[in-house]
Amino acid sequence: MGSFSIWHWILLFGIVAVLFGGGGKISSIMGDVAKGIKSFKKGMSEDDDKPVATEAPKAIDRGEKV
């Protein structure tokens, strides 16, 4: 009961072969997802590196003479 039978191992290896097999549609989709995650993380880290430029507050000229 504690170990897998031969059918469990065959099913497990079949799933791994389908997911990570060479040139399959699922493996290419997983590669695209990984590229998307990497580019998202890169974009998030680039936003943190750039300092936010702040300007001094400007005075409002009301046109009144004192």
Structure, described:
This protein is mostly helical. It has 2 helices and no strands. The longest helix is centred in the middle third of the chain and has 25 residues, at 25-49. The protein starts with 5 loop residues before the first helix and ends in a 17-residue tail after the last helix. The relative contact order is 0.06.
SSE diagram, text form:
Blueprint: H1 6-20, H2 25-49
Give a brief outline of the structure.
The protein is mainly alpha-helical. The protein is built from two helices and no strands.
Number of strands: 0
What percent of residues adopt helix (DSSP H or I)?
A: 55-70%
> Given the helix and strand composition, which structural class is it?
mainly alpha
Rg, Å, rounded? 29 Å
The coarse overall form would be rod-shaped
Main sheet specs: none
- Binned strand content: under 5%
Spell out the key features of this protein.
about 70 residues, single chain, 2 helices, about 0% strand
